[in-house]
Design goal:
The chain has 358 residues and is of the alpha/beta class. It contains 14 helices and 13 strands. It has helices spanning 6-9, 37-45, 48-52, 58-68, 80-92, 107-115, 133-139, 162-171, 184-187, 225-234, 242-253, 255-279, 298-307, 332-349, and strands spanning 24-25, 75-78, 98-103, 119-124, 144-150, 176-180, 201-206, 219-222, 282-284, 290-294, 310-311, 313-314, 324-328. Helix 4 packs parallel to helix 11 (242-253), helix 5 (80-92) packs parallel to helix 6 (107-115) and helix 13 crosses helix 14. The longest helix is centred in the last third of the chain and has 25 residues, at 255-279.
Length: 358
């Protein structure tokens, strides 16, 4: 009888709460207002011939590489960052190899690594979710073949200093070191330049967050030219849709739109953090488009917020995140609604009193 591989049979399940997402969607770290109007106009211009033809990735890769300031040969467009992770696993991991992650972090790292047959080594984050550079380096062995680091990290919003990331890459010359910069726009600091120091260092970017293209599924992976040549052997030549390729240059070309949205998010992030502090609710200073807060009864909190038309994400099952929820930020009007619901929910559940709505 046909049976999946052992590595697949033992995979943990990941069930994102997609069904019934009615309300203000502050649960998935999406752009809460949507993509640039230029993207929508480009969508209207697409004709049947473009949809009937296989997509050409390379011309758009050259444009993206120019904007990011890297060589086109160093960049590969992918079907979201998730495909980039898949490709790294397929290119570098043999069954039984070791892979390191720092927990808590993006849940799919573990699943993709385990699916490839790797032994996943989880290194707990330090106090207040600080990046544990010493512990990571101490866990690197001759069997370590892949290290995945989200920076800023999800779900905490905390960051790893560039010096620590370079130290990890230096300490693991035989391992692919992925720095996942999905939330780069909200942080503003990147490893794109520094990664040239080490041929084993890769940087991933997504256009799902700040750019509002989550539904188009497109990301980018940047690495050493020789390593990227190997990645292309594994990658399908038609991995990114014609629709995504047509729209991405328009999204990238409207930087005024992106910068305005990033400004709104940063202002809202500061407002939420002030409100949480005033309420006596523990949270962690974030460099992403969300804030992680410990509210106690997370499931009850999520349900009460949902009843008020606000969706937030329960992260209490993540390592060290008991009682925590993750709240995505958007423009001022969304934050006004969020803080009103937060104040009412905290009062109803007795979590804290007097949440500020500044």
């Amino acid at each position: 009888m046909l049976s999946p591989r052992e590595a697949v049979r033992t995979l943990p399940s990941y069930h994102p709460p997609l069904a019934g997402r009615d309300g203000l969607r502050l649960d998935f770290n999406e752009n809460t207002v949507g993509c640039s109007p230029r993207v929508l106009e480009r969508l209207r211009q697409l004709g049947p011939e473009q949809l009937a033809s296989y997509p050409e990735r390379e011309p758009v890769e050259a444009k993206v590489a120019d904007i990011l300031g890297v060589a086109a040969s160093d960049l590969l467009l992918t079907n979201g960052v998730d495909e980039a992770i898949h490709l790294l696993c397929a290119t570098y991991l043999e069954p039984g190899d070791e892979a390191l992650i720092v927990v808590p972090t993006y849940s799919m790292y573990r699943i993709y690594l385990m699916a490839a047959g790797a032994q996943v080594i989880s290194v707990p984050a330090g106090k207040d979710f600080h990046f544990p550079a010493d512990d990571v380096c101490n866990r690197i062995t001759a069997c370590t073949r892949l290290i995945a680091i989200a920076n800023p990290n999800n779900p905490t919003g905390t960051v790893a200093p560039a010096a620590d990331l370079l130290r990890v890459a230096r300490s693991a010359p035989d391992a692919a070191v992925l720095v996942d910069e999905a939330y780069f726009e909200f942080y503003g600091q990147s490893m794109l330049g520094a990664r040239n120091e080490f041929s084993n260092c890769f940087v991933a970017r997504t256009f799902s967050k700040a750019y509002g293209l989550a539904g188009l599924r497109i990301g980018a992976l940047v690495g050493d030219e020789d390593q990227m040549r190997a990645m292309r052997r594994v990658c399908s030549p038609y991995n990114v849709s014609a629709v995504a390729l047509a729209c991405l240059p328009e999204a990238l070309g409207d930087q005024d739109y992106i910068q305005q949205y990033v400004t709104w998010v940063r202002e809202s992030r500061a407002r939420l953090e002030r409100a949480l502090e005033a309420s006596g609710i523990q949270f962690w200073a974030s460099q992403a488009n969300f804030v992680l807060a410990r509210v106690g009864p997370a499931s009850s909190f999520v349900e009460q917020m949902r009843r008020r038309g606000i969706l937030v994400r329960d992260r209490s099952d993540d390592h060290g995140c008991g009682g925590c929820v993750r709240i995505t930020l958007g423009p001022r009007e969304h934050t006004d609604r969020l803080l009103t619901a937060l104040h009412e929910t905290c009062e109803e559940l007795g979590i804290a009193q007097g949440a500020s709505r500044r």
